[in-house]
Structures are given as C-alpha cells and as structure tokens.
Amino acid sequence: MRNRILALSTVLAVCAFATAALAHDYTLGELKIEHPWARASAGAAANGAAYMTIATTGTTADQLVKADSPVAGKVELHTHILDGDVMRMRPVSGITVNVGEPAVLRPGGLHVMLIGLKEPLKQGGQFPLTLTFEKAGTVTVQVDVEAASMPMEPMHHKH
C-alpha cells in the first residue's frame, strides 16, 4: 500500500509540473494572454506565425494594434479571407478583444505573421514577442516553438 501511495504521489507531482510548464499565461491590466506558441519552421521557411488566445476580464474591449519580435525582419497582424475558392492571408490594422469573447489566434485564422525570419524556429525553443494594445499598453511574452507537425486546417494559401 505504501508503494502505491508513493507511486501515485510521484505521478501527481510529475503531472502538476508538466501542466505548469505547458501553461504559460501573461496578464496586462485586464487582459490575459494564454499560451503563445508558434510552429517550428519547415526547412528553410522565410516566414512563420504566432498564435495565442487573448481575453479581457474588464468591462470594455481592447485591441491588439502592433506586434514586434527580434526573430523577424517584419511583424504584422494577419487574418485569412476566402477569395473565391482560395484562402488568402491579409494584414489587418488590429485584432479586437471583446468582453466575453476572447480573440483566438490560430492557424487558418487571425495570427501574428513573422516575415523574414532571421533563423528557423526550432522545436523546443522560445522567442520574445512584444504585443501592443490600444488601451492596456505593451507586454512581452515568450512564444513556445512547438512541433511543425501540429494539425493545421486545410487551405489553399496565397498572399
């Protein structure tokens, strides 16, 4: 019985540590930025993208208006639009975070576009990304680089 309790305690401790390691959230005033991540670069890809969920606990909306990172020559806020039968990426001037409706940045939707990567994004790495909001101000988050093989919504992709 003692061995079972010890084994169970060990498993629970490992699970708690793994959960804490995966959940990296940031707070800026009334905004919460949850799990910023990017896919590892495929080969010598010149561009990449960062994703996350941004929510507000406040009573007014805010807007992500700018992003910067030293890993890319240029950083833009983007979305995908359906143009006929083709999905196309387009820059947007901002990403709104409404009360009760988090902004979900994900593959195939809104995202932070990293243009002109200075070096490939490597799985297991991290990089800084500075987010500027219209009302809340600026916060720098660490973006986790995850496996390139993560599922992605199917699309035909053109700029």
From TrEMBL:
It holds the Pfam family PCuAC. Keywords: Signal. The keyword Signal applies. InterPro entries: LpqE-like, Lxx211020-like, PCuAC_sf. Residues 1-23 form the signal peptide. PANTHER family: BLR7088 PROTEIN, COPPER CHAPERONE PCU(A)C. This is Copper chaperone PCu(A)C. It comes from Candidatus Defluviicoccus seviourii.
